[in-house]
Amino acid sequence: GFPAAARAAMAHCPPWQFDLAAAQEEAAKLSVHGTVQLLGFLGVVALVRWWVPKVDPVATADNVFGMLLYPPLAGAALLATYTLHQDHSSRWAGASPAAGWFARCFVARCLTHTVVMFFYRKMKAGEVVLMLLHHLLSAACFGHVFVVKR
User: Fold this and answer.
1) Cα–Cα distance between 80 and 98 in angstroms, integer?
2) Cα separation of 121 and 58, whole Å?
3) DSSP type of residue 145
4) What's the DSSP call for residue 54?
5) Helix, strand counts (H, E) of the chain
């Protein structure tokens, strides 16, 4: 069954290890990604406010920024999948520049978006809570690789 196959796949992988030095190094890289994304987003907000003044500038800028960010994210995910497809060990514990860039960029996007969504004009409190949980859980699911050497 599935559990036996999963156990067999994981048998080829090194055990999870917490690496504080790697976590600190990744935190520095993640802060750069987050800062670049936040500055880029603020630039798009300013452009939207100037270009289309009658719309919610944050929501519109979020859509425009997403259209610019998500295609490279998808490309990095596909490239990482292609480069890490050799065997079970590479899929579960492998690393590649594309996989690292994707993880950092995605986690930074989730974390910056937790701040951005509070500035939407037409979001109800329940929607904010759901989106906050979604982004924090997504960041945790992808971000754990920075501290366990996977």
Assistant:
1) 5
2) 8
3) G
4) T
5) 6, 0
Tokens of 86: 């050799």
CA distances from 117 to 61, 83, 114, 130 (A): 11, 34, 6, 11
What is the 3-class SS of 104-130, one letter each residue? HHHHHHHHHHHHHHHHCCCCCHHHHHH
User: Tokens for 144?
Assistant: 């754990």
Give me the sign of the Cα torsion angle 51, 57, 59, 64: positive
Q: Could you report the per-residue pLDDT of 30-87, keeping only the tens digit for each?
A: 899 999 999 999 999 999 989 988 888 888 999 999 999 999 999 999 999 898 887 7
Quick one: residue 149, left, alpha or beta (phi over 0 = left, psi -120 to 50 = alpha)?
left
Measured distance between the N- and C-terminal CA atoms of the chain, rounded to whole angstroms: 25
Cα(54)–Cα(140) distance, integer angstroms: 36
